[in-house]
Amino acid sequence: IDQVRTGRAEFFGHEEITSFDREEAARGWDVAKGAIASGLYSVVVLDEINPVLDLGLLPVDQVVRTLKSKPYELEIIATGRAAPQDLLDIADLHSEMKPQDHPRAKELFLEGIEIYTGAGKGKSTSALGKALKAIGRGINHPGSTRVLIMQWLKGGSGYTEDAAIAALQQSYPEVVDHQRCGRDAIVWRNSRQELDYIEAQRGWEIAKTAIASGLYKTIILDELNPTVDLELLPVEPIVQALLRKPRDTEVIITGRCQQQPAYFDLASVHSEVYCHKHYANHGVELKRGVDY
To answer: Which of 31, 82, 131, 287 has the most neighbouring CB atoms within 10 Å?
Structure first.
């Protein structure tokens, strides 16, 4: 993995653009073009390139032309607000997050509960990104934080993120813990088995203890929403555990659901992920290392 950052570490609008901003955008794009053309990478993430284009710091037509000529097997992920239409037109996948407001969380002075739901791609990915930031904080400041990644409905093996998490655990065992529960199968409402209930409850016992312990500053409850939606877990114990969580513990909950459970009202951050376009809907197979 390689990482390059560009730009100044502050927000600015059109009227505040400087020559430094233009030079930094061009420097970043030179690196990105080289990476795209090199054949060295299977995935290139162009983080926040959308607002860079929206601010006019890079020519949209040049970026689109480069992306259209990328190697076939290369996956490029562009992020950020205000993506130009020309870029959206060539995308195989387009997800959009829209904020949802829950007044009850403000009334209860609740903070640190985030929910990512909806039909679009990017829910678990967003949570894992938050986990990565927290892990980085724990590495830079030993003892300051510990992260739990708890995943439901994702039993078995073959998940490519496991190798990355295992490598972090090996190097920094005091910073990150990871647990999976569930069968190695997709669970539908009409295919639920006794083991699904047992595994869901096992996962919740781990999560409930972690939330109450105060040991963890970031807890990812990945795919908890569909677990509840499938009625594999009751809602009320989750509500009570979240109401009693330590103030400095951040809980991030992911997954789609047909009916929003009561704990959604406790979220200080709730993003609904909408699917505008997905290659799977056009017969393209899901990609190992990208989708799972």
So the answer is: 131
In angstroms, the CA 253 to CA 58 distance is 36
Domain pair 14-91 / 98-281, same fold: yes
Going from the C-alpha of 50 to that of each of 21, 209, 237, 275, the distances in angstroms are 15, 40, 41, 18
* Backbone Cα Rg of the chain: 20
Confidence at 278, pLDDT banded by 50, 70, 90 = confident
Look up the pTM and report it. 0.89
Architecture of domain 98-281: 3-Layer(aba) Sandwich (3.40)
Q: Within a 10 A sphere around the Cβ of 199, how many other Cβ atoms?
A: 21
Cα separations (Å) of 129 from 33, 141, 218, 265? 24, 18, 12, 23
CA distance 49 to 46: 6
Q: ∠ CA 176-177-178 to the nearest 5 degrees?
A: 125
pLDDT, tens only, 72-93:
999 999 999 999 999 999 999 9
CATH number of 14-91: 3.40.50.300
Question: Any idea which residue has 């972690």 for tokens?
Answer: 210
Distance CA(175)–CA(94), nearest Å, equals 33
CA dihedral 287, 175, 238, 202 (to 10 degrees): 70
